[in-house]
Each structure stands twice: as C-alpha cells, then as structure tokens.
Design a protein that fits this description.
By secondary structure, the chain is α/β, with parallel strands linked by helices. It folds into two domains: 109 residues, 2-Layer Sandwich (Nucleotidyltransferase, domain 5); 183 residues, Nucleotidyltransferase, domain 5 (2-Layer Sandwich), CATH 3.30.420. Helices cover 40% and strands 17% of the residues. It has a five-stranded mixed beta sheet, with helices on both faces. It has a five-stranded mixed beta sheet with strand order 8-7-6-9-10, sandwiched between helices. α1 crosses α2, α5 crosses α6 and α7 crosses α8. One of its GO terms (molecular function) is glucokinase activity. It is an enzyme of class 2 (transferase). Pfam families: ROK.
Length: 342
C-alpha cells in the first residue's frame, strides 16, 4: 500500500439496515455517528449486495474519501454463518430468502466491489470493538476479553492479544451454546429451558429475548398471575419486559436476575478457561436507562465466581456505542488483516 493514506470501510449488515463507517490507516474513525441505509436482505442476495455497495459509496461520500484509496472492507452479518462468510444452509432469522442458504456473502461482495473483504460475525465484531475501545491502541494487543452479546439469541466473542479467536472450524466464541448445570440457575419447579439449537439449559436458552419468551416468562408469570403482562401474547410481553425492569417491577427484575445468573455462570467458565482481563456485556438488553444497565451489570458481576486475584485483575464493562459497534469492529478486524507488515 506504500506511503499513501489508505482506508477501510466497515459494513454492518442487519435484518433491516446496513450501518457503515470508515477507518483510516492510523486507526481513526472518520464518521462520528451512524451512516445507515436499508439492507434489503429479505429480497435476497442480489438486492442485498447492491445495497451493501451503495452503503459503501454513501459512507465514503460522508467521510470525503476517494474510492481508489479503499484498501478493503470489513463486513459483519448475523449468523449462523461460517467464519469466512458462508451463510448456513439452514438459513437464519435474517436470511430467510431461499437463495441465502449456503450463500458465500464475503466472496460475492469481494467480487462485486473488487477490493478485499474480511468477514466477521456481528457478535465477534462487537466484541472486538469493545476490546479495542476499552483498552486503547497501546494496550489492546496485550489484553484479553470475553464478550456476551444478548439479543434475540446470545452471541459472543473471545479476544486474545487484540485478535478474535476463531477456532479450527471457525466456531470459537459460540458462547450461547455452552451448557449450564440446571441446579445452579433454575428455580425449584422450573422446567428445563430449551434452546432453538436443540440444547437444553444452555446460556442462550436463558440469556436471550427468545429465552425470555419461550422459557422464563411462562414460569415467572405463573408466579405473578395478576401481572399486566399475563394478558399479553408472549412475544409482546417479552419485548415489553425491559421497560418494566427499568421501573423496578419485581417480576421483570426476577427474570433479568435469572439471566444475570446464567451470564455469571458463563463468565465463571471463562474465568477458569481463559482468565480474561475484561468481561463485556452488550446487545439489546443493555439499550436501557443507566440505572437498569448498571444494576444488570452488577448482578452479572455478583453471579460470576472469581478468585481474589482475578477480582483484582479483571473488569466488567458494557459494550460501548452499541449501534456502531458492529461496523466499527468489522473495520478493525479488516484493518488488522490488511495493514502492511512492520
């Protein structure tokens, strides 16, 4: 790339919108907020790829960067997908169009844009951004972290020495499907929670919006039969629950404390396996008022069993800039791959 300035475009591809950013060769983001546009993923790969190309042109215009100066693109999408951007043959919540099954979105976008494309799943991208933002350029490469991203499902990311751990088959960091001992997280008489993946009592079966709807709310509404949410369909009640928690509703706090137990047990596994410098919590569950966010993070910390030495060495924090974390993390991942040696 020589001595000329070069740039990486980060593209966060979601079910409804693309979010884009630009990262320069010094590691500075040139777009302060979101540059958002429709993703068109429900219309199939052809329309979605065109929308990604348009998102790139739009953000380059906002950042005042010439197309010829772009060294590559960092792309992230929701899963399930391989570590190299091949969408699951079974499809997914976002990629419902039949042409998405087994589609190699990374290679297709690279062919369209004619620049290198580096793929990350959205949870890994958010985890990488949290890591680099918290530790900064000087320390990120010497630190480790584990992130749990709580949304419709539960994504995750493991970062060692500033790099996402991908694994031999590209499946490292699938933290949602780690099984938990039921006796440590379930109430007396509470049925075993089932995950969409087929597991029973894994982290996602409890710590996710799907887990709330399918497993937690039916039980807790039985404990609070007169609660207003008992009159609502479960999908509606599940989405409304965070608002009740912000008002310190007892049922809602019980549900989220049970999620915090599951996340604490997950981080306890991480403490004994990778002993990270930081534990990050992100996703839709923390898009809430500061009081509830701090309460939830505190409960996760309280349910994480650390040794005294680990408590002194590690921190618990929220994933920052949630709406931008995917695009920015994807750009960081691409920059690490594309930057010249030395």
């Amino acid at each position: 790339m020589g001595s000329k300035a070069w740039y990486v475009v980060g593209l966060d591809n979601g079910g409804n919108a693309n979010n884009a950013t630009v990262l320069d060769d010094a590691g500075r983001f040139l777009v302060p907020g979101m540059v958002e546009s429709p993703s068109l993923v429900r219309e199939g790969p052809k329309a979605a790829l065109r929308a990604l190309a348009e998102a790139m042109e739009q953000v380059l215009e906002v950042a005042n960067v010439q197309r010829a100066a772009v060294a590559g693109v960092g792309l992230d999408t929701p899963g399930p997908a391989s570590a190299y951007g091949v969408i699951s043959s079974r499809g997914s919540t976002n990629f419902v169009h039949p042409e998405w099954a087994g589609f190699d979105i990374r290679t297709a976008l690279e062919d369209l844009l004619q620049v290198p494309v580096v793929y990350s799943n959205d949870a890994n991208a958010a985890a990488l951004y949290a890591h680099h933002t918290y530790f900064g350029a000087e320390e990120a490469g010497r630190r480790s972290s584990v992130s749990a991203i709580v949304g419709t499902g539960l994504g995750g990311g493991v970062v060692e020495a500033g790099q996402v751990v991908r694994g031999a088959a590209g499946m490292a960091g699938e933290l949602g499907h780690i099984p938990l001992p039921p006796g440590g997280v379930l109430e007396d008489g509470q049925g075993l929670p089932a995950c969409n993946c087929g597991n029973v009592c894994d982290v996602e079966s409890l710590a996710s919006l799907t887990g709330i709807e399918k497993n937690l709310l039916p039980y807790w509404l039985g404990r609070y039969p007169d609660h207003p949410l008992a009159a609502e369909p479960l999908p509606v009640a599940a989405r409304a629950l965070r608002g009740y928690a912000e008002r310190e509703d007892p049922l809602a706090l019980s549900v989220f404390d049970q999620q915090a137990k599951a996340l604490g047990m997950l981080f306890t596994v991480a403490a004994n396996f990778t002993d990270p410098h930081a534990y990050f919590l992100g996703g839709g569950v923390v898009v809430a008022g500061a009081r509830f966010r701090d309460w939830l993070l505190g409960r996760v910390r309280a349910h994480t069993a650390l040794r005294a030495e680990q408590r002194e060495a590690a921190v618990f924090a929220l994933v920052p800039d949630l709406d931008m974390a995917g695009a920015r993390g994807a750009a960081i991942a691409a920059r690490e791959v594309l930057k010249p040696a030395g």
